[in-house]
């Protein structure tokens, strides 16, 4: 995919779900679970950012971060289903957008022993929030929906990140995207 098309696609994806963000779900289904990460701009940005960040890592960290996020997100939903409360869930989600954006903006490469727990901690908040908006129905099918949507968003971010050329202008553009994501996280934290 041409880098310009990839960035246009990213821009359209970022703008697509804002009107539907965090609507309550009357009945939990695969589709409602699948649509939840797509309908909340905070979830959408964080999940794309995980993929973008993973694309610039080396070796097994490229897949460990997205897989770790999905697993921890499912754990967060499970905690919610068990009635375990997490403090400041929305602030944790907003912080994930801010921090992941900053990691992209500064082209940071944290060691996996720092990056994986960081990403997993953020994912707990996302999973807990997904469960909180589940409504009535099967946790299994709802969780399968949001897990698959999350993996697809990670994959989209990863593919976009891998398609960005190594040219200086492209690296600056990717960093600018990181700044924009971090800026959105800062707005979410202030809101």
UniProtKB/TrEMBL annotation:
Q: Which InterPro entries match?
A: HupE_UreJ
The alphabetical list of record keywords is: Membrane, Signal, Transmembrane, Transmembrane helix
On whether Metal-binding is a keyword of this UniProt record, the answer is no
What is this protein identified as? HupE/UreJ family protein
* Transmembrane is among the record's keywords: yes
- Pfam families, per the entry: HupE_UreJ
Which segment of the chain is annotated as a signal peptide? 1-21
The organism is: Pseudothauera rhizosphaerae
- Locate the transmembrane regions by residue number: 37-56, 63-82, 88-105, 110-127, 139-161, 173-190
Q: Which domain of life is it from?
A: Bacteria
């Amino acid at each position: 995919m041409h880098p310009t098309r990839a960035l246009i696609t990213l821009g359209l994806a970022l703008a697509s779900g804002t009107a539907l963000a965090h609507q309550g779900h009357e009945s939990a289904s695969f589709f409602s679970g699948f649509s939840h990460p797509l309908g909340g701009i905070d979830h959408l940005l964080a999940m794309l950012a995980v993929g973008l960040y993973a694309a610039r890592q080396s070796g097994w960290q490229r897949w460990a971060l997205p897989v770790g996020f999905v697993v921890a997100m499912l754990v967060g939903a499970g905690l919610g289903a068990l009635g375990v409360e997490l403090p400041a869930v929305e602030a944790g989600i907003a912080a994930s957008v801010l921090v992941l954006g900053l990691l992209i903006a500064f082209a940071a490469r944290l060691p996996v022993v720092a990056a994986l727990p960081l990403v997993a901690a953020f994912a707990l908040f996302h999973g807990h929030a997904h469960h909180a908006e589940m409504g009535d129905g099967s946790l299994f099918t709802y969780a399968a929906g949001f897990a698959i949507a999350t993996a697809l968003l990670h994959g989209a971010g990863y593919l976009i990140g891998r398609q960005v050329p190594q040219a200086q202008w492209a690296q600056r553009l990717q960093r600018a995207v990181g700044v924009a994501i971090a800026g959105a996280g800062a707005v979410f934290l202030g809101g």
